[in-house]
Amino acid sequence: MHQSIFLAFGLTIFAGLATGIGSALAFYARRTNTSFLSVALGFSAGVMIYVSFVEIFVKARLHLVEQLGNVGGTWLTAASFFGGIILIAVIDKLVPSYENPHEIHRSEEMPPRGSSVDCQKLYRMGLLSAIAIAIHNFPEGLATFAAALHDAKLGLAIAVAIAIHNIPEGIAVSVPIFYATGKRGRAFWLSFLSGLAEPVGALIGYLLLFRFFSDVIFGISFAVVSGIMVFISLDELLPAAHEYGEHHFAIYGLVAGMAVMALSLLLFL
Questions:
Q1: Per-residue pLDDT tens for 22-80?
Q2: The whole model's pTM is what?
Q3: 203-206 — which CB contacts under 8 Å span 24+ positions?
Q4: 176: which residues sit within 8 A by CB, 6+ positions away?
Q5: Whole-angstrom Cα distance, residue 223 to residue 78?
């Protein structure tokens, strides 16, 4: 059990710190590879949607039906699923749209160094993006942790999907801070630290939920996680994938993500 907990925390750390990759891309790539990001974000959405409906939701219902009966278990599964959607939707609503980290950012969109820019405004934008990302990463950390604690392979797939999702968030933090201050180190570390909210979310979830762990709590948490992941995919990943590239790139990535996730589940039957 202890080994599973350490692995679950390790995967949430890996997923959260992918924001640092976004920082590196922003600093060292002259132009953002929008086609790649579009496919990658679509792929991430495909993985998360498929695994949410085919694996996580189904397992949640099985556990709850076993404990509460068919009617009670099925109702509670559905209620928990939509509860997860409401939770992440409320968090998303609390972040003003003009400061939302899921607004699209590219390396080349900022003004050249030395040009007259409102540095204070840019720096504030970067800081608020970092705070917003940290808030968003709490439920994402819980989702990764809960999945990995139950099934390491499932947790790894979700961690990779969320890591891809976190790359453009790293760009959203680091680009404005770098152009406001000229300091790559400060921009990178603020982006890096915003990703640490992912394992913090996992820790809070562990302390609040898993101390009182039971089959019913497991079923509810898994259904909540599936709702969180579906909302993230539909509200954040797919719109971002469309914005970064052509419509078909996002859909190709989505289908590829579903296919890879399906194959990985089939191989371990």
A1: 777 666 655 555 677 778 778 888 888 998 898 889 989 998 999 999 999 999 999 99
A2: 0.69
A3: 203/9, 203/141, 204/138, 204/142, 205/141, 205/142, 205/145, 205/146, 206/5, 206/145
A4: 105, 110, 122, 123, 125, 126, 129
A5: 7
